Amino acid sequence: MSVPSPLSGLKIGIIGAGNMGQALARGLAEKSVYPQNLSVFDIHSEKLQALKKECRIKPAKSARQCVSLSDVVILAVKPHLLEEVIREMAGAVEKDALVISVAAGVTLARIESFFKKPVPLVRVMPNMPALLGAGMSAFSLGRRASAKHRKIAEAILGGLGEKVEVPERMLDLVTAVSGSGPAYFFLLAEKLIEAAYQMGMKAAVAKKLVYQTAFGSGKVMTSSDEDPDVLIGRVVSKGGTTEAALRVFQKEGLGKVVQNAVKAAYKRSKEISEGA
Strand, helix or coil at 259? Predict the structure, then answer.
């Protein structure tokens, strides 16, 4: 006998149909949410119509209407628009409605202050691969969020990929590691392609080699519970090519460079969270 989804029968509203809002709508429509229980609002009507055609969601005429139709409200708007959107919709939020925010850098305390009334909140830090259902989302519960709300948030985020709960104080570090992290891997890919090109390989061939190697390596890591050093050991042969390359990485201080980059991203994330 199958266990019912925490989302069964729930009406879910999404404010914002940008990349993340669209990813959430697709993920939910593919899960256990009946399309007519999924309403979306965005000021750009063409985005709503495209989603309606693709996922059969219910377009809302305003943020307030979207909220009034929903048991769970997902705020997928730009951080600088969050306060304005909440002011518009706050009066329509039911007492027990769960509000989930994916607005980067806006703390639970700030979101609560925008509502000016007790609201169960969940704050989420997703990343770009969520657009393909392969993301990594970290979430934190607000003071009034319950175990039931946690299960709902986990079910929703499952449509974006993997998820993990962390204390809110860790979200700035999450941002520095997985939020910004895809760009770090893209940079390494770019540099590998450039190196191959400069040594005589056609750019298209280098790109194919690097992209597939990144894809395959990612699959190895996500399907294994072994630490990276163990996986590295499976590629390295004593006196071989990989060992020669890794010696250069170590000599040039790659580890320190990565550590400093993550520290810089973490510092900036904290500044943004504090309104700097």
Answer: helix
CA angle (97 as vertex; 102, 139 as ends), nearest 5: 30
Q: Please give the DSSP secondary-structure letter assigned to residue 241.
A: H
Q: Which domain holds residue 196?
A: 179-273
Integer Cα distance of 101 and 123 in angstroms: 5
Q: Which two tokens stand for residue 166?
A: 């962390």
| Domain co-membership, 60 together with 147 | yes
Together in a domain, 62 and 101: yes
- Helix crossing, 203-222 with 181-198: angle to 10°? 140
Do 131 and 204 lie in one domain? The reply is no
Classify residue 226 as left (phi > 0), alpha (psi -120 to 50) or beta.
beta
pLDDT in tens, 66-91: 999 899 999 999 999 999 999 989 88
The predicted-structure confidence for 241-264, as pLDDT tens digits, reads as follows 999 999 999 999 999 999 999 999
Q: Give the pLDDT band of residue 149 (cuts 50, 70, 90).
A: very high
The answer to whether position 172 is within a domain reads no
Using CB atoms within 10 Å of the CB of residue 142, give its burial: 0 to 12 exposed, 13 to 18 middle, 19+ buried. Answer: buried
**Reduced to 3 states, what is the DSSP secondary structure of residue 4?**
coil
H or E element, residue 195: helix 181-198
273: left (phi over 0), alpha (psi -120 to 50) or beta: alpha
Checking phi first, is residue 182 left (phi over 0); if not, alpha (psi -120 to 50) or beta?
A: alpha
> Which pLDDT band, with edges at 50, 70 and 90, does 22 fall under?
very high
